[in-house]
């Protein structure tokens, strides 16, 4: 397929920081996905940038075919030649910007947590419900790792039998350094009372929610370990570091045919862990474990018959993502690949609809939905209340 045969989806980026640039980099190497029998018939083109920082906008002008350059996001929303926006801004801005985007009629991939707190998320949800034709998805890329997708397929096949327990988490280590300077993610005004819950919570909850494993109750313990940080790099003045660093939630999942405990942990201070996302499922017929700590490795343990040997299989997963890539199967998959796969899923669903998605695999894996974002806020809000009261908080159901 020639590049011109791919339908351009013209994007504006609102917030061109860490994540905005990840999208730009993924879009710039779209030829990576010109592979396999059904290469994408769509291509993101970043034609607009909105950021308060001139340096950020310069970066986009240097690296993308920018036609709209602004520090006022409403200018992108009123640009008739833009089809969609990606919003990656601090959490206190989500509600205002996301609701304005939805009302503008542009498609949107919005960053998690989709609102600084439960109330903000409810108002975003309301705006989406009032505009049912709006195509809106929430960013969460790590489930696109091929190892995680193998686990998705196992769940879809019902391979686990009776589930005994599930553990999922997302752990970082950089905040172990008490001299790491403050940033907006450590300030309640910008990151919310949730702190780490909102910052990282969707990552480990995305797959459980997709599987229908919605907790009926939550008990949670939060830690705030580092309570002040330098105002800037090398600055001797320290300012309050207000947000929760670590959260451990023990939840009870009950579905029509399963009843099990699920532990979900999100940590800003997990010594030795740099962007470690993991899911472990123990079942009577199959167990499995995938972690980005060893991104090629998938551990599975089938238990086919009573008394069979219990031995873990440890396999390297080939580079075989949902959207075929020019990268050979012998190579390794990484964060930037997961971002690109997520973007392909967003553009694919927007272009071809859920049923027409050009992915490999029987059931397409689409991006996190606003409903999944809403359900994750229900869990985070309950977790916050559980820590505050020391009680188990019911989520109903
Ligand atoms: N999916 C992931 O893996 C992942 C990882 C990190 C962050 N995030 C999410 O992405 C979002 C942004 O985080 P980040 O790490 O990219 O932050 P960042 O601080 O690196 O970037 C935010 C950008 O927004 C800009 N900005 C601030 N106010 C603005 C305004 N009014 N209009 C336009 N631009 C404005 C800032 O100048 C900055 O460039 C957050 O929701 C965060 O939770 C997601």
Strand content: 15-25%
Instruction: Look at the helices and sheets and give the structural class.
Output: alpha/beta
**In CATH, what is the class of the largest domain?**
Alpha Beta
Helix content: 25-40%
Strand order of the largest sheet: 16-15-14-13-7-12-11-8-17
Q: What global shape is seen?
A: globular
Number of DSSP helices? 11
Q: Please report the distance between the alpha carbons of the first and last residues.
A: 49 Å
Can you describe this structure?
The protein is of the alpha/beta class. It folds into 2 domains: 3-138, NAD(P)-binding Rossmann-like Domain (Rossmann fold, 3-Layer(aba) Sandwich), CATH 3.40.50; 142-323 and 369-394, Dihydrodipicolinate Reductase, domain 2 (2-Layer Sandwich), CATH 3.30.360.10. Helices cover 30% and strands 25% of the residues. It contains 11 helices and 17 strands. The chain has helices at 18-28, 54-63, 73-77, 94-104, 118-130, 146-157, 188-191, 196-200, 202-210, 335-352, 370-389; strands spanning 7-14, 42-50, 68-70, 84-87, 107-110, 136-138, 163-171, 215-223, 228-230, 238-240, 246-254, 259-267, 276-283, 286-291, 297-302, 313-316, 393-394. Strands 16-15-14-13-7-12-11-8-17 form a 9-stranded mixed sheet. A 6-stranded parallel sheet has the order 3-2-1-4-5-6, sandwiched between helices. Helix 1 links the parallel strand 1 (7-14) and strand 2. Helix 1 (18-28) packs across helix 10 (335-352), helix 4 packs parallel to helix 5 (118-130) and helix 5 (118-130) packs antiparallel against helix 11 (370-389). The chain starts with 6 loop residues before the first strand and ends with a strand. The model has no long low-confidence stretch (mean pLDDT 96). It binds nicotinamide-adenine-dinucleotide. The site of nicotinamide-adenine-dinucleotide has 22 residues, from helix 1.
């Amino acid at each position: 397929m020639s590049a011109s045969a791919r339908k351009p989806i013209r994007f504006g980026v609102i917030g061109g920081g860490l994540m905005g640039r990840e999208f730009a980099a993924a879009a710039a190497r779209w030829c990576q996905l010109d592979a396999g029998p059904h290469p994408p018939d769509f291509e993101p083109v970043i034609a607009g940038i909105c950021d308060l920082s001139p340096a950020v906008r310069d970066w986009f002008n240097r690296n993308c075919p920018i036609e709209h350059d602004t520090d006022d996001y409403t200018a992108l929303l009123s640009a008739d030649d833009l089809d969609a926006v990606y919003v990656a801004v601090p959490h206190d801005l989500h509600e205002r910007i996301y609701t304005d985007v939805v009302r503008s009629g542009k498609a949107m991939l919005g960053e998690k947590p989709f609102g600084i707190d439960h109330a903000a998320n409810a108002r975003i949800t309301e705006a989406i419900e009032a505009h049912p034709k709006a195509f809106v998805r929430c960013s969460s890329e790590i489930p696109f790792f091929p190892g995680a997708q193998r686990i998705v397929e196992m769940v879809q096949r019902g391979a686990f039998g009776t589930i005994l327990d599930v553990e999922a988490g997302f752990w970082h280590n950089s905040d172990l350094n008490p001299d790491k300077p403050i940033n907006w993610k450590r300030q309640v005004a910008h990151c919310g009372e949730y702190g780490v819950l909102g910052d990282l919570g969707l990552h480990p909850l995305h797959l459980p929610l997709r599987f229908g494993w919605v907790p009926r109750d939550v008990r949670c313990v939060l830690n705030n370990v580092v309570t002040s940080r330098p105002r800037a790099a090398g600055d001797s003045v320290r300012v309050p570091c207000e947000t929760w660093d670590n959260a451990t939630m023990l939840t009870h999942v009950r579905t029509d045919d399963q009843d099990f405990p699920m532990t979900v942990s999100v940590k800003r201070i997990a010594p030795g862990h740099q962007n470690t996302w993991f899911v472990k499922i123990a079942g009577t017929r199959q167990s499995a474990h995938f972690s980005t700590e060893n991104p090629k490795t998938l551990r599975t343990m089938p238990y086919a018959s009573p008394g069979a040997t219990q031995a873990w299989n440890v396999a390297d997963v080939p580079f075989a993502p949902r959207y075929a890539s020019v990268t050979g199967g012998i190579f390794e998959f990484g964060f930037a690949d997961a971002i690109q796969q997520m973007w392909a899923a967003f553009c694919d669903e927007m272009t071809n609809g859920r049923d027409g998605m050009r992915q490999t695999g029987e059931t397409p894996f689409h991006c996190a939905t606003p409903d999944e974002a809403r359900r994750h806020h229900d869990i985070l809000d309950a977790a916050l209340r559980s820590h505050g009261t020391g009680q188990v908080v019911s989520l109903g159901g």
